[in-house]
Design goal:
The chain starts with a strand and ends with a helix. α2 packs across α3, α2 crosses α4 and α3 packs parallel to α4. The protein contains 16 helices and 20 strands. Helices cover 34% and strands 16% of the residues. The strands form 2 sheets. An 11-stranded mixed β-sheet has the order 3-11-20-19-18-17-16-15-12-13-14, with helices on both faces. The longest helix has 19 residues. The chain has 2 domains: 226 residues, YjeF N-terminal domain (Rossmann fold, 3-Layer(aba) Sandwich); 240 residues, UDP-N-acetylmuramoyl-L-alanine:D-glutamate ligase, CATH 3.40.1190.20. It is α/β, with parallel strands linked by helices and 488 residues long.
Length: 488
C-alpha cells in the first residue's frame, strides 16, 4: 500500500502485521547490471539519486523530529545512497553526520559524485561517530559483498547495534546475506529496512526477519522482476461454500500416526484437519491401546489401520509415528492418492532408499513433505546448518529430488515444488516454536488437499493461515499447539 509521505510501499511489519496485496510479490536477490538500466533510459547515478531521496523521506517518516542523524557510509554504492540521503536531509534543515573511510578516489564514480553532492550541501563527513544522535542510517554494505572489515567499520557496527536510537538499514542490514538470510556475528540489526528496487529473499527467511525489523520497499520506479527467484506468499483468497453441499463435498482425511506415548501428535493433526474444513477425519492410531474416542472432539472417527482406504482419502502420515510407522510406509506410498508426510515418516524415508524411490515415483501434485531443518538435513544427507545456510536452494533441491511439494519449516517457511517458483511465507513468529505445531500444519494441509486443491496450493495457503494464527494470538499465555489448532 502506498504511503504518501514516504513514496514507499510498506510490506511487512516487525510485529507480524501483514500489509501486502493478496497476490504474491516477487523476490530478487540481485539488481540487474548497468547495461539493463541503460536500456531503461536511466543512468546509474540517477538511480542512486532516487534511492537517496527515498531513504531521506522514509527517515523523516519514522523519525520526524530527529535532528542529528548519523549516516554510516560504506565504500561502495550503498554508501553512495547514504551520501545522497545526507544531502537531502541537510537541505531540509536536519543535521546529518556522515562517517566514511577512505578517499574519494577509492569510491565508484557514481558514489564519488554523490559524496560531492553531500559536501556541496554542507554535510559533515568524519571518522567519528556523533556522541548523540536521534536516528542512525546504515548505508555501509547493503547487498554488496562485505570485504574484510577495518577497525572503523567494526567499531561503527558495534555502535549501531549498541545505540539507543532507531536504525534504518539501506537495502539490507550490513552483513545479512540478501540471498539466504544468513547473518554472521557482527552484522547490523536494524529497526527498519528499506529494500530498494526489489525485495530480497534473505529479508524474509532464516535470520533475516530478526535482522531487518520493519521492512519497506521502494522500487525507484523500476521493474526488476526479470531476475525473480522466489515469491512472497500472499494472502489466500477467501472461499465460499455453496449451500448445496454435504460432508462428502469437502473430502476425507486419514491420520496415520500416534505411536505409544505420542498419540497427541495424531490428535492435533486430526483437530487441525477438522478446523481446516475437511468433511470427515479418521484416526488410525499406531498405539492400539488408546481409547477409540476423543471426548473433546467427538467428530474424530477412530479406525483400525486395516480399515483405512488409502485410495479414497488424503493420508497424513507420520505425526507421532515413531518407529512404528516404518512398517506401513511402503503401502502408504504405493496406495495413497494424496499424501502428507511429516515427522517420523520423513525420518524413516531418509534411511531407506527403496522408500525414497517409491516417493519419487508418485505424482508431484499429490504429495507434500513438511520437514523442519533437521529432518530436511537427514533427507538430503546434509547438516542442519547447511540447510539453514541456504533454505531456498535446499527446499527446491529436495522438491526436485523427490518430485513433490516441500514445506521447509522455520523462520520464513519455504514452499517449493518442481516447475514452480518457490514461495517464502511471511506469517508466523516464535510462538510456533513449541511441540505439536508442525502436526497442526500437516493436518491443515491435509484438509486443503481434501478440498480439491493441488499440493502446492494447499501448502502455500496452509502455511499462511498457520502463521497468521500465531501473529494474531493476543493472550498473555503461550500459544500451545492445541490452541493453535482450535483457532484455525
Amino acid at each position: 500500500m502506498k504511503e504518501k509521505h514516504t513514496n514507499s510501499e510498506r510490506i511487512l511489519c516487525k510485529d507480524g502485521n501483514i500489509a501486502i496485496a493478496a497476490r504474491p510479490l516477487f523476490l530478487n536477490s540481485t539488481v540487474r547490471d548497468a547495461e539493463a538500466w541503460a536500456d531503461a533510459n536511466l543512468a546509474k547515478h540517477a538511480l542512486m539519486q532516487r534511492a537517496g531521496l527515498a531513504i531521506a523521506r522514509l527517515a523523516m517518516a519514522i523519525a520526524p523530529h530527529a535532528r542529528v542523524i548519523w549516516i554510516a557510509c560504506g565504500p561502495g554504492n550503498n554508501g553512495g545512497d547514504g551520501y545522497e540521503a545526507a544531502a537531502h536531509l541537510k537541505r531540509w534543515g536536519k543535521s546529518p553526520v556522515v562517517t566514511a573511510c577512505g578517499h574519494t578516489s577509492s569510491l565508484p564514480a557514481d558514489a564519488a559524485a554523490s559524496r560531492q553532492s553531500a559536501l556541496d550541501a554542507g554535510v559533515t563527513i568524519t571518522l567519528e561517530v556523533p556522541e548523540q544522535y536521534d536516528l542512525c542510517i546504515d548505508a555501509l554494505f547493503g547487498i554488496g559483498k562485505i570485504r574484510a572489515l577495518g577497525p572503523h567499520y567494526t567499531d561503527w557496527i558495534k555502535s549501531i547495534n549498541s545505540g539507543v536510537a532507531p536504525v534504518l538499514a539501506v537495502d539490507t542490514p550490513s552483513g545479512l546475506n540478501a540471498e539466504t538470510g544468513t547473518c554472521p556475528e557482527g552484522s547490523v540489526h536494524a529497526d527498519y529496512t528499506l529494500s530498494l528496487l526489489t525485495l530480497k529473499p534473505g529479508l524474509f527467511t532464516a535470520s533475516g526477519r530478526d535482522a531487518c525489523g520493519e521492512i519497506w520497499l521502494n522500487s525507484l520506479g523500476m521493474d526488476a522482476s526479470a531476475g525473480m527467484c522466489a515469491l512472497l506468499n500472499g494472502t489466500p483468497q477467501p472461499t465460499v461454500r455453496a449451500h448445496d453441499t454435504h460432508k462428502g463435498s469437502f473430502g476425507d482425511v486419514g491420520i496415520v500416526g500416534g505411536a505409544k506415548g505420542m498419540t497427541g501428535a495424531a490428535l492435533l493433526a486430526g483437530v487441525a484437519a477438522l478446523r481446516g474444513g475437511a468433511g470427515r477425519v479418521y484416526l488410525a492410531l499406531l498405539d492400539t491401546s488408546t481409547a477409540p474416542i476423543d471426548t473433546n472432539h467427538p467428530e474424530l472417527m477412530f479406525r483400525n489401520l486395516d480399515d483405512i482406504v488409502f485410495e479414497t482419502m488424503v493420508i497424513v502420515a507420520g505425526c507421532g509415528g515413531g518407529d512404528a510407522i516404518a512398517g506401513h510406509l511402503e503401502e502408504i506410498l504405493e496406495r495413497s492418492i494424496s499424501l502428507v508426510l511429516d515427522a517420523d515418516a520423513l525420518n524413516v524415508i531418509s534411511r531407506d532408499l527403496v522408500l525414497q524411490r517409491k516417493l519419487k515415483n508418485r505424482s508431484n501434485r499429490t504429495t507434500v513433505l513438511t520437514p523442519h531443518p533437521l529432518e530436511a538435513a537427514r533427507l538430503m544427507n546434509l547438516q542442519s546448518t547447511e540447510v539453514q545456510a541456504n533454505r531456498l536452494t535446499v527446499a527446491q533441491s529436495m522438491a526436485d529430488r523427490f518430485a513433490c511439494t516441500v514445506v521447509l519449516k522455520g523462520s520464513g517457511t519455504v514452499i517449493a515444488a518442481p516447475g514452480s517458483i518457490a514461495r517464502i511465507n511471511p506469517t508466523g513468529n516464535a510462538r510456533l516454536a513449541t511441540a505439536g505445531t508442525g502436526d497442526v500444519l500437516a493436518g491443515l494441509i491435509g484438509a486443503h488437499l481434501a478440498s480439491g486443491r493441488n499440493a502446492f496450493e494447499s501448502a502455500c495457503e496452509s502455511a499462511f493461515r498457520h502463521g497468521e494464527v500465531a501473529e494474531k494470538w493476543h493472550h498473555s499465555f503461550p500459544l500451545t499447539a492445541h490452541n493453535l489448532a482450535k483457532n484455525l
